[in-house]
Write a structure and sequence with these properties.
By secondary structure, this protein is mainly alpha-helical. It folds into 2 domains: 168 residues, Fumarase C, Chain B, domain 1, CATH 1.10.275.10; 303 residues, Fumarase C, Chain A, domain 2, CATH 1.20.200.10. It is 57% helix and 5% strand. It is built from 20 helices and 7 strands. The strands form 3 sheets. A 3-stranded antiparallel sheet has the order 2-4-5. It has a two-stranded antiparallel ribbon with strand order 1-3. A hairpin with a 2-residue loop joins strand 4 and strand 5. Helix 18 packs antiparallel against helix 20. The longest helix has 31 residues. The radius of gyration is 27 Å and the shape is elongated. It starts with a helix and ends with a helix.
Length: 484
């Protein structure tokens, strides 16, 4: 990765404008003044550089377990992109160092807690900036080393921060946006797995495909519903199980089968709303103050405030909570002989063996936990900086709990895969639709049919690993076509 020539020109113009503002003596927040509630404290030209270093050191006050490398890398790239737009008044060297760290795999150790989601991700971004001035800690190839030593080993030069540069690195939404962007990618993958697992359960429970009729979805006009209904038709194509019960069966299926398009369609829309908000956020200027090179102005505002992002991440978390809870309801039906027309707990030797009884317990535990996490972080606000920053978005909290919801929901869907695959064993010799048939074969390549009781924790972990890498969805999509 490297900085483009057009970006260098924009940054140089912005930097020259900032230097003129400093030379003129006009007040500029965070450049010739203090920060937050200290905005009215003037800073002399002689102290302008010390101000930026003090800002970085004092704000590197995060706590808690560090963010994973992928989250840190995403945050660094998004911040570099925002600065490269040329409205932050920083030298090109600032962005070039961020890109150099990314290219050399130098990952600052960034504690996951500390951001309030307004005034930017101050604490986590300060830990990135700390490494940029040759301090702090980094993780390089699994080893934690001093930031300055890592830069020297990569032949990168630590920055001597100049006017506004510390503030420019800290004052943005890059960490929340980085976490959120990776979350959306994972959520879209999980949605595919959820649709495939639902189609397997649908076959094992002998559902009716009538609710997937495109005429119904056209009347509702919800895009997510239309897409999911179409996906179910693709997945169930050539099903012998569906053909076997076209005669009198039941008047209507339960909601967990009949309303798959409506419920998973709504989950789809929550993910795509978050995606739209994030696409805007990661391509925006989220700095403060903003430097306008054409008019030589420093304009203070609130582009660092992540209210839109926080609310979108909360909505994403809600969608994933519903996705997991919906999956758990099918698991519960699969193991209940009164509802499934299958052997109790999906074992041929009920009584002596408990089969998949407790898999449903585990799914229910994850579903219940997610209901706690689904409370919106953005509904809360705690003032900071002596009430100067009196309404914060709590966007980082929204991102962190949405990640936990996703991990829990992924495990629930993994359990549905296991139970649905076992349920399909009892429908043989009839073959399910193309999608469930391929998914069943892939799962059986790693997890054998349950013939006698065994610990299934390892089975869950194996299926979760397959879902992370797309090992179930990819072969299914290769056969039925792309799933939305």
């Amino acid at each position: 990765m490297k900085l483009g020539h057009a970006a260098v020109r924009r940054m140089e113009a912005s930097r020259n404008a900032l230097l003129e503002i400093v030379k003129s003596g006009r007040p500029a927040y965070g450049v010739t003044t203090g920060f937050g509630q200290l905005e009215n404290v003037p800073i002399s030209k002689g102290d302008a550089l010390r101000l930026q270093e003090n800002l970085v050191r004092s704000h590197a006050a995060g706590a808690g377990p560090p963010l994973p490398h992928d989250d840190v890398r995403a945050s660094m790239l998004i911040r570099a992109n925002a600065l490269a737009k040329g409205y932050s008044g920083v030298r090109p060297e600032v962005v070039e160092l961020l890109l150099g760290m990314l290219n050399h795999g130098i990952h600052p150790v960034v504690p996951s807690r500390g951001s309030l989601g307004a005034s930017g991700d101050l604490a986590p971004l300060a830990h990135i900036a700390l490494v940029m001035i040759g301090e702090g800690e980094v993780d390089v190839q699994g080893k934690r080393v001093a930031g300055g030593a890592a830069l020297r080993a990569a032949r990168l030069t630590a920055l001597r921060l100049e006017a506004k540069e510390g503030l420019a690195v800290l004052n943005g939404t890059a960490v929340m946006a980085g976490l959120g962007s990776l979350l959306v990618a994972d959520a879209l993958q999980l949605l595919k797995d959820s649709e495939i697992a639902a189609s397997m359960s649908f076959e094992a429970l002998r559902g009716s495909p009538a609710p997937f009729d495109e005429r119904l979805s056209r009347l509702k006009k919800q895009v997510g519903q239309q897409l999911v209904a179409g996906n179910m038709v693709k997945l169930l194509r050539e099903s012998e199980i569906v053909e076997s019960h076209k005669g009198p069966h039941r008047v209507q299926d339960p909601y967990s089968l009949r309303c798959i398009p409506q419920v998973l369609g709504a989950c789809f829309e929550s993910i795509h709303y978050a995606r739209q908000v994030l696409e805007i956020e990661i391509n925006s200027v989220t700095d403060n103050p903003v430097i306008f090179a054409d008019t030589r102005e420093s304009v203070s505002g609130g582009n660092f405030h992540a209210q839109s992002l926080a609310m979108a991440l909360d909505f994403l978390g809600l969608g994933l909570t519903v996705l997991g809870a919906f999956s758990e309801r099918r698991i519960a039906r699969l193991v209940d002989p009164h509802l499934s027309e299958l052997p109790p707990f999906l074992t041929e030797h009920g009584g002596l063996q408990s089969g998949m009884m407790v898999l449903q317990y585990t799914a229910a535990a994850f579903a219940s936990e997610n209901k706690v996490y689904a409370h919106p972080a953005s509904a809360d606000s705690i003032p900071a900086s002596a009430n100067q920053e009196d309404h914060n978005s709590m966007g980082q909290g929204a991102a962190l709990k949405a990640r936990q919801i996703l991990e829990n929901a992924r495990r629930i869907v993994a359990i549905e895969y296991l139970c649905a695959a076992q349920g399909l064993e009892f429908r043989k010799p009839l073959k399910p639709g193309v999608g469930p048939l391929i998914a069943h074969r892939v799962i059986r390549g790693s997890v054998p049919k349950l013939t006698q009781d065994r610990s299934m924790s390892g089975d869950i972990d194996r299926v979760v690993g397959m879902m992370r890498s797309g090992d179930v969805a990819k072969p299914v999509e290769a056969k039925v076509g792309r799933l939305a």
